[in-house]
Amino acid sequence: MAKKTFLDFEQPIAELENKIEELRYVQSESAVDISEEIDQLDKKSLKLTKDIYSDLSPWQITKIARHADRPYTLDYIRECFTDFVELHGDRHFADDQSIVGGLARFNGNACMVLGHQKGRDTKERAARNFGMTRPEGYRKALRLMKTAEKFKLPVFTFVDTPGAFPGIDAEERGQSEAIGRNIYEMAQLEVPIITTIIGEGGSGGALAIAVADQVLMLQYSIYSVISPEGCASILWKTSDKAEEAAAALGITAHRLKALGLVDKIVNEPVGGAHRDARQMGGFLKRALGDAWRQIGDLKVKELLDRRYERLQGYGRFTDTKAER
């Protein structure tokens, strides 16, 4: 069994889990039956986890969204889709491994699926650039979406990035143009698009594959115009204020659902998606099926009109005139 990684606010849970593991080891190495004590501690651990996770701050949720063991796009593709065939390259420059995608089947129906992919170990994280996409990655994503449009296939996208890569090479190859082009093209793509925020949804790097007819968001994911650290660096000139920035930004699923920016929150297993990736995959597959049933039968014009109205509805405000 892989060793669990606990966050700082989960230390009481970690201590209890370590005690449980020690007792299990004792039971396996001796003839003493302590299964009842282990069961009691398991129940206590579950209750403690529920209590801690029932009152999380936005900064704590940010840490969960970034958890190293959290399922990534390829994990959800494996759990929710079948017959996945990965497609590579943008046909212009290179194959950006921070974006993965290809043809697959969802409940037996052909579709196109794509999303950000971080890495599990140091080597893979470097190869996938920690999920920070360069222009060729967004152009690859657009190529796959246009292919889906050609063959009238629905598009499923998964967002998990701290933001688009800000390096000089990315800027030289047209980072802002690539992101802007994706947003423009997705707004008028003539097939259904369903997007799920599975971890971090950072800035234009997220929005470049998130213009959709239905937007789902996992319970402990985040979605924001900028990272808390970036916001703090701008407002307070130090990233040490990231916790305050996270609270001010309104980056959590429930806050964004209340603002109408996401359509559905997908609940996670107790302790977060990283505690049980298979169960999380089952939850998400059902949510994706529900989202697909809402838009799958819409005619193209109705789909595009609905998407346009959705985009125009962002950023609500009230215009009041001062009395003279």
What is the CATH architecture assignment of the largest domain?
Answer: Alpha-Beta Complex
CATH superfamily of the largest domain: 2-enoyl-CoA Hydratase, Chain A, domain 1
Query: What Rg is obtained from the alpha carbons, in whole angstroms?
Result: 21 Å
Order of helical and strand elements: HHHHEEEHHEHHEHEEHHHEHH
Question: How many DSSP H or I helices?
Answer: 14
Q: Kindly identify the CATH topology of the largest domain.
A: 2-enoyl-CoA Hydratase, Chain A, domain 1
The gross shape turns out to be globular
Poorly predicted regions: none
CATH class group of the largest domain: Alpha Beta
- Percentage of β-strand residues: 15-25%
**Helix share bin:** 40-55%
Based on secondary structure, the structural category is alpha/beta
State the major sheet.
Answer: 8 strands, mixed
- Give the termini distance in whole angstroms: 71 Å
- How many DSSP-defined strands? 8
